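[job 0412] stage=complex_fold ligand=C2E status=START
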Amino acid sequence: MFISELSSLLDTSFVINDTEVFITSSIGVSMFEKNAATTASLLKNADLAMYSAKEAGKNCYSVFSKENHEKIEKEKATCHALHTILNKGNKNNELYLMYQPLLNINDSNFSECEALIRWTNDDGITTMPDDFIPLAEKSNLIEKISLFVIDEACKQQSKWQRNGVKDVRIHINLSGNKIIFEKLLNHFKANIESRDLYPSLFGIELTERTLDYISDETIRQLDQLRRLGMKIAIDDFGTDYSSLSQLKKLPITTLKIDKDFISGIANDRDDQALVKTIIQMGHSLQLEIVAEGVETYEQLTFLKDHSCNTAQGYFFHHPLKSKHISHLKLVA
Ligand code: C2E
Ligand code: CA
Ligand code: CA
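[job 0412] stage=complex_fold status=DONE, emitting structure tokens
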């Protein structure tokens, strides 16, 4: 009761230098004896709880709990370890990319792949990106990771070009915020140019969330890259909210349907209707449609029957090491 009163007292405007400013509060609560035995630990735990309130979307309060504390400590350790690896230049190759083929649905021809990051530590334990990318996205760590991914993908493409693996387009996942995003695109362009590669050897996958903060400058840069042959895809299409008018504004070439929808298309009528509608809508906007997470023959048949263009999934290949991609291509 007391906390909500405190919160509503702060939830008002203040006039500073003739300007009206609004503030919101994020409050952390820790209780003496129950959560802490000294003043210092009481304050420290209240501070930790405040970070949970901020994470929960701000303008609310959070009460310190041991579980929450352990979770935050674990997340901090993960971010710290990743920072250290990247600052030391990833010299033990703990971070690396795997490549999952994308196949033309009609002739099963393979000329594209998606780069997916992995983290295997010195003890051989692999952490999957879902366990660190969302964390990295909350700080500038995502910028460092994305720069690493861009460098690795460009390096790999150069190597393939030199070794006669001529036509495997690499798609990379890019996330970040408004400022980071512009930086990443500039870095990507510079890297492609300095290695004498072409934008048509690459693709970028953006999620619908990116659309919330995309700037006019980013749109201009993406448009330039698309005109030079790069593919630009909206990833996980349908899982978040994006309006059709936003889609129209963007220079995209591809819609990628999330695997959650694909997993249901053999028997779930709602998923069937959704996937059919996305394919029809995408085609009427002259977009290529990629289905992600294709695992069965039935799913593939449905997608083929409804004119989906491209498929990716365990039915064909799991993510592979780069040497297996070149082998696949050279023996084809
Ligand atoms: P995503 O971009 O939607 O990538 C597809 C995920 O589905 C990948 O998981 C892939 O391994 C998995 N997958 C592919 N085919 C199948 C299938 O048939 N069945 C099932 N069940 N799964 C399949 P992964 O590699 O664990 O990546 C998870 C997510 O992490 C990605 O989702 C992407 O959002 C993010 N991520 C991965 N690498 C990067 C990266 O380099 N940068 C950024 N920003 N995000 C990345
Ligand atoms: Ca993706
Ligand atoms: Ca997905």
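The chain has a mean pLDDT of 91.
[job 0412] exit 0
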